[in-house]
Amino acid sequence: MPGRQGMEPASAAARAPRPPSFASQTNALLRKNLIFQKRNRKGTIRLIIVPIYLCLIISVLQRVINSFLDKPKFRCGCKCIDDANGSTAPCQNVCGIQYSTLDQAPSCPIPNPPKWPALVQVPLPEYRAVQDSSGLFTGFPDASCRKTQSCPASIPFAGANTTLSNSIMQNLLTSSPLLNLSDYTSISSLLLGTDVPGSSTGFVEPAFISARPIYVLQPQCKSGDSVTIPITVGSVNAQKEIKCVQGLPLWRNSSITINEETFRGYRKGKTAKGINEIAMGYDFQDSNENHFNVLTLYNSTYENASFIPMPFALLRIPHSLNAVSNAYLQLIQGSGVKMLLDFTKEMPKQATRLTFDFSAVAGPLFFEWVVVLLFPKKIQVMLTYLVYEKQHKLRTMMKMHGLGDGPYWIIYYMYFLIFSTVYLIVFVIFGSIIGVNFFKINDYSIQFVFFFSFINLQIVLAFLASSFFSKVNTAQAIAYLYIFGSGLMAGYLIRNFIEGGKFPRHWITVLEIIPAFSLYRGLYELGQYAVRSSETGSPGMRWSDLNDHMNGMRDVLIIIILEWLVLLPVAYYFDYASSVGHRSSPLSIIKHLLKKDPTWRRITANEIDGKDVHIEMEKVDIIKEREAVDQVLQQQQTSGYAVVCDDLRKVYHGKDGNPDKFAVQGVSLALPYGECLGILGPNGAGKSSFISMMIGFVKPTSGNAFVRGFSIQNDMEKIYSSMGVCPQNDMLWETLTGREHLQFYGRLKGLSGSSLDLVVDESLRSVNLLHGGAPDKQVKKYSGGMRRRLSVAISLIGDAKVVYMDEPSTGLDPASRKSLWSAVKQAKQDRAIILTTHSMEEAETLCDRLCIMVDGKLQCIGTPKELIARYGGYYVLTMTTLPEFEQEVEDLVRRLSPSSRKVYHLSGTQKHELPKQEARISDVFMAVESFKKRVEVQAWGLADTTMEDVFVKVAKGAQSSEELS
């Protein structure tokens, strides 16, 4: 019928309490959070001062390391020298690298660094490439040369012009008698090499201070072809062996083949057998007599030969390029033309104090964990805070009392933002005060923009992640795994990709889309500038440095800000979708995109999954209630009705072959203002499912309900402002007091000032919580009964016109229960209350009408007296005699009522039901008095039907009918 599609809400809305304003909602939530924060101030202070402790640890480690490095062992070496003229004056203390050990040399001034011949990297004799059993590559010597350590240094090459390429290689390797060498400066014209890894320059080429020989690569070598020449390091003279090693050029079809051969040499061979290393490789590509284009290939694993980072390592590439370029030049211009790389040397340096900037070197990973650890911290912060409220249904409770998504997001976002900003400002300021270069050297404005941007992204990530978790422990575990795992991955990948120099820069940028990687890259860049500053005295990172293409900070800032702008609406949508009153959770949305979710299918009254449904003849009272609902919906006259349910159904579809569960089946109700409707039923009857649909916990499968004229399918946001809920399980903050709870929810209802205080005191008084210190006691100290009474008070506070109470008196003592009943009786005068209970006494005391639900269906509805009259209709006669007189008792009952029914029999005690139309109370009393003269009656009684009897009879009858169907 058309009327069922919706109701005219105008009249209801006119009488509805005004929804709380945006300012009222934000004020209520802000005050609650401030109270909560004040209550947890010790934990907050501990968290805020964590950066101070961390900076102190860094400072102490820095001082310990620098104190160790300031010992004479690491200071520039000195020597006391007497006057050469024989003066009797004390000797003069002279310091310099010539008087220093290798540990002392780095701190010495070097105004004129020594010159060293340029070298190429040559494999160790035992790992030079030889022919193996695979036969994949040809031309290598037999492996027997390794026994005599006479294997040549293989140099594969390729090129488009084969003749030109071979000629260049012939010029590259030239013969020169080693006996003609006199000192180390005369060997620069030769193709020199070393098998010593280029760990660090240290102003001294390590090959010349090593015991290993210097090699000269020539086309052929004679046995024992070597010579020893003098070398000079400062004022120290030494002898160095120069040894011939054969260079073996090998033609290859392409550089791809050379790369494969080079890879076979990975790594140096100390932990693997049969590894073949090549010295170098060349691809002359399209070179010709007028154009020289060469690609040099080398074993890049030598850059990791030391713990020293790559920027300080020697790969010895310049000489290999110079040698092949010189060979081409001599081929074109003649042997007399040379363009030699004469020597290499360091830049001069001043005397320095050896230091190690721990914060800058270890900083990126360490500080990443410090920054991101704010993400999963305890209840005070972000993810855990959000999931905690979700797990304990506190967010749902706030929403059901009128709190909108906008105020919730603004208050919590600003709360997290202020908290995180203070956390990091304390970190940076204190770190700068105690002298941590990571903070002190770099521009503070860059640090602020970087950290502030990431904080905003981090908050959005917390909101987004909270939508996918329902348990705090699960959220914490996954958050910690993400933090430490992503930090380690970022530290390993980003550092190696940047320092390796071979990973494409744009792919590094792609990796930085992962927040942990972008954070690490930004911290890495700050750390590198701090290291450079401590070594060279240069200033730290400035805004102008962001234009440097090697500086990744600009890309990081762009990525973080763009991610924040993109993920902010996404996080808001997922939070909106997963909150109470909306159709689905984020996971169900994703599932729906992949496959249609069957739970969204509408179920009709007479068809469920194509199965035949047993149609039961409904009771007259149920039919009348449905007719009343139809009339209200057709006429759209809702001013007198608070709640109208129209054929409301809920089906939970079975999984893994299990049948569907019909929780609520076709409930139709019309509830006017000023009435309390009680819903009775056994466990699993569908009472809580019905309440859950009415308060927006779950969506109905079919049907609809109208609360004050607004549909629960589409208008829950409007319904919340005039709704109160006492859920089955108490949803309370452990650290807030009872008064603070009521003040918070009262503000959500638009109360303030003295009127709020008056309403709060009245609410506490009505549930007997006003005295004995209960109002100002934290809820975690409340007993179960006190919590229950507080939940009832919350549901009734403000001008809530529709109140749902799910078993409100559970766990209460008799005195508290009576007090609670009085509060509910008084509250129902101008509002509608729907109440579920298992207490028949409570139902008869509070409820104007009762309905009994079994297996999701309404079995009857009416006032308690109507139900007792309809389903009672009998007296219950109980009599106890000696066992031998049981038959006489049965004969007595049969004379009083031929249609009587015995319902209980045990050891002489019998209970009989006597239809009221067959037995009068006076006749029963007279017959029993006469019977007592003949038979000893130990006890007897006559009672009318109770509500409990009605409930048992209706429930058993409905279950029996269900079994027969």
From TrEMBL:
<dbReference type="Pfam" id="PF00005">
    <property type="entry name" value="ABC_tran"/>
</dbReference>
<dbReference type="GO" id="GO:0016887">
    <property type="term" value="F:ATP hydrolysis activity"/>
</dbReference>
<dbReference type="InterPro" id="IPR027417">
    <property type="entry name" value="P-loop_NTPase"/>
</dbReference>
<dbReference type="GO" id="GO:0140359">
    <property type="term" value="F:ABC-type transporter activity"/>
</dbReference>
<dbReference type="Pfam" id="PF12698">
    <property type="entry name" value="ABC2_membrane_3"/>
</dbReference>
<keyword id="KW-1133">Transmembrane helix</keyword>
<dbReference type="GO" id="GO:0005524">
    <property type="term" value="F:ATP binding"/>
</dbReference>
<feature type="transmembrane region" description="Helical">
    <location>
        <begin position="45"/>
        <end position="65"/>
    </location>
</feature>
<dbReference type="InterPro" id="IPR003593">
    <property type="entry name" value="AAA+_ATPase"/>
</dbReference>
<feature type="transmembrane region" description="Helical">
    <location>
        <begin position="446"/>
        <end position="465"/>
    </location>
</feature>
<dbReference type="InterPro" id="IPR017871">
    <property type="entry name" value="ABC_transporter-like_CS"/>
</dbReference>
<dbReference type="Pfam" id="PF24526">
    <property type="entry name" value="ABCA12_C"/>
</dbReference>
<feature type="transmembrane region" description="Helical">
    <location>
        <begin position="556"/>
        <end position="574"/>
    </location>
</feature>
<dbReference type="InterPro" id="IPR026082">
    <property type="entry name" value="ABCA"/>
</dbReference>
<keyword id="KW-0067">ATP-binding</keyword>
<keyword id="KW-0472">Membrane</keyword>
<feature type="compositionally biased region" description="Low complexity">
    <location>
        <begin position="9"/>
        <end position="22"/>
    </location>
</feature>
<feature type="domain" description="ABC transporter">
    <location>
        <begin position="643"/>
        <end position="880"/>
    </location>
</feature>
<feature type="transmembrane region" description="Helical">
    <location>
        <begin position="409"/>
        <end position="434"/>
    </location>
</feature>
<dbReference type="GO" id="GO:0042626">
    <property type="term" value="F:ATPase-coupled transmembrane transporter activity"/>
</dbReference>
<feature type="transmembrane region" description="Helical">
    <location>
        <begin position="506"/>
        <end position="524"/>
    </location>
</feature>
<dbReference type="InterPro" id="IPR003439">
    <property type="entry name" value="ABC_transporter-like_ATP-bd"/>
</dbReference>
<feature type="region of interest" description="Disordered">
    <location>
        <begin position="1"/>
        <end position="22"/>
    </location>
</feature>
<keyword id="KW-0812">Transmembrane</keyword>
<dbReference type="GO" id="GO:0006869">
    <property type="term" value="P:lipid transport"/>
</dbReference>
<feature type="transmembrane region" description="Helical">
    <location>
        <begin position="366"/>
        <end position="388"/>
    </location>
</feature>
<dbReference type="InterPro" id="IPR013525">
    <property type="entry name" value="ABC2_TM"/>
</dbReference>
<dbReference type="GO" id="GO:0016020">
    <property type="term" value="C:membrane"/>
</dbReference>
<protein>
    <submittedName>
        <fullName>ABC transporter A family member 7</fullName>
    </submittedName>
</protein>
<feature type="transmembrane region" description="Helical">
    <location>
        <begin position="477"/>
        <end position="494"/>
    </location>
</feature>
<comment type="similarity">
    <text>Belongs to the ABC transporter superfamily. ABCA family. CPR flippase (TC 3.A.1.211) subfamily.</text>
</comment>
<dbReference type="GO" id="GO:0005319">
    <property type="term" value="F:lipid transporter activity"/>
</dbReference>
<keyword id="KW-0547">Nucleotide-binding</keyword>
